[in-house]
Amino acid sequence: MSARIIDGKAVAAEIRNRVASQSAEFQQRSGIVPHLAAVLVGEDPASAVYVRNKQTACEKAGLKSTLHRLPVETTTEQLLALVARLNDDPGTHGILVQLPLPRQIAEQRVLDAVTPLKDVDCFHAENVGLMVQGRPRFLPCTPSGCQQLLIHAAIETAGKHAVVLGRSEIVGKPMAMLLVQKGLAADATVTICHSRTQNLSEIVRQADIVVAAIGRPNFVTADMVKPGATVIDVGINRVGDKLVGDVDFEAVRAVAGAITPVPGGVGPMTIAMLLQNTLRAAELQAI
Ligand code: NDP
Predict the structure, then answer these.
(1) How many domains would you assign to the chain?
(2) Tens of pLDDT along 219-247?
(3) Do residues 157 and 259 share a domain?
(4) CA atoms within a 13 Å half-sphere pointing along the CA-CB vector of 254
(5) Residues 179, 108 share a domain
(6) Contact present, 144 and 113 (Cβ < 8 Å)
(7) Mutation probe of ligand 1 site: the residue of 49, 171, 211 with most atoms within 8 A of C-beta
(8) Does the pLDDT at position 280 exceed 80?
(9) Which of 164, 214, 233 for mutating ligand 1's site (highest number of atoms within 8 Å of CB)?
(10) pLDDT tens digits, residue range 111-152?
């Protein structure tokens, strides 16, 4: 039996359309066009593509986006000065600092400097804290995108064992936090695995839901997956001229019950959730 493919592109398109109509209503009501400021430091080609995709998605949904490009030799102080300017600008509602930043920049200081009301990536400690306490201001884009895929595919999570591979602040940790909350696409029993985990394969084999976010191509193999499990592949790895996930897609597909492809799975969802957060940021700032 072959797993059901969870089509992230289609779900993301639905969410983007919904954001577009909600944004149009909001604009009519308030006269405000939600505005995302994207900050790109340096010339990393993958980052440039990600930022361009986010900007294009904003424009298609009727949101304004502005790109601030800074040279690779930018200092922490210079970047902090830009963030401060954007924080103070009432016409900017969301601020996105594209990661990774060049090595000389103190990344945490920069992320901490984004004012929480404009923190559409949900990286600020205040927003992470609110999310962990189950009263989110913003939801973290990639993890909430995964959750939306689970909802769309009608995957039962309550009482199920979800295993999250990876404990980064951007994906693994917040993903686990969302799955363990009370509510829709949550209420799961959650295990987090990382590079120090012992018996990782055994743990993953117990999972009803696997979320792979480690950045290792084809790491999750068919023998690690329980028949019928749902597999969400967050990984984006370049192998030669191909993009592959953290899951050995073709082999795992034969065992799993449902699976996300790469590309066309979680990636488009991350962008859709960013748009949703930008609209929410504009709404919150209009109150
Ligand atoms: P990080 O490199 O920040 O974190 C990777 C995590 O995986 C760490 O917790 C690390 O453990 C763990 N890990 C690494 N190797 C192993 C291993 N062999 N066994 C077990 N655990 C391991 O990555 P991110 O979380 O930022 O991203 C993960 C992947 O998701 C990447 O491929 C990235 O490109 C992709 N991504 C995709 C997005 C999308 O929109 N689809 C958005 C963001 C990321 P430890 O903490 O112990 O080092």
Answers:
(1) 2
(2) 999 999 999 999 999 999 999 999 999 99
(3) yes
(4) 6
(5) no
(6) no
(7) 171
(8) yes
(9) 214
(10) 999 999 999 999 999 999 999 999 999 999 999 999 999 999
